[in-house]
């Protein structure tokens, strides 16, 4: 860090000031803005891996679960992949994702390991959902929050990558890294 330079998280008001410019959230609902974040909601689909033993070097098969309006009960020790309803795009800020504290206090963990986005990311966020006890979840619930960090130094922007410009829930594509090593 440069001497005298302070890196900041944008306030809710600053997020609104940058909407339609460096920050895009579609759809955007003003009532979801927080003091320093914006609540994102859960799409009505989940993916689960079909096998109990996964392999990093190969694609792992998944199956789709539709979350009905009356809810779906998540089970412990299963990783569920979800998706936000909202499409986000960011330029000039680092998007970061966290679970909402109200959701975490029910023993549901959202985006446990990969909440750090890249400058220039554009797409829907795939959520890593894990619970400690059975819990009923619902489609469209405000499940996580996005916040924005400023960045220092030059960056090229993020225009390509395994998860850039996605449409649906993205299972791990780590296996592609192994292809590049061959």
From TrEMBL:
Signal peptide: none
Swiss-Prot/TrEMBL catalytic activity: dCTP + 2 H2O = dUMP + NH4(+) + diphosphate
Chain residues that bind dCTP: 100-105, 118, 126-128, 145, 158, 162
Keyword Nucleotide-binding listed: yes
InterPro entries with a match to the protein in the record: dCTP_deaminase, dUTPase-like_sf, dUTPase_trimeric
Entry keywords, A to Z: Hydrolase, Nucleotide metabolism, Nucleotide-binding
The keyword Hydrolase is annotated on this UniProt entry: yes
Enzyme Commission designation: 3.5.4.30
GO BP annotations, alphabetical order: dUMP biosynthetic process; dUTP biosynthetic process; nucleobase-containing small molecule interconversion
Active site: 128 (proton donor/acceptor)
An example molecular function term from Gene Ontology annotations: dCTP deaminase activity
Known pathway: Pyrimidine metabolism; dUMP biosynthesis; dUMP from dCTP: step 1/1
Site entry: Important for bifunctional activity: 115-116
Top enzyme category: hydrolase
Transmembrane segments: none
Quaternary organization: Homotrimer.
Record NCBIfam families: dCTP_deam
Function: Bifunctional enzyme that catalyzes both the deamination of dCTP to dUTP and the hydrolysis of dUTP to dUMP without releasing the toxic dUTP intermediate.
Family that this chain belongs to: Belongs to the dCTP deaminase family.
Family matches, as HAMAP family: dCTP_deaminase
Protein name: dCTP deaminase, dUMP-forming
Organism: Megasphaera hutchinsoni
Gene name of the record: dcd
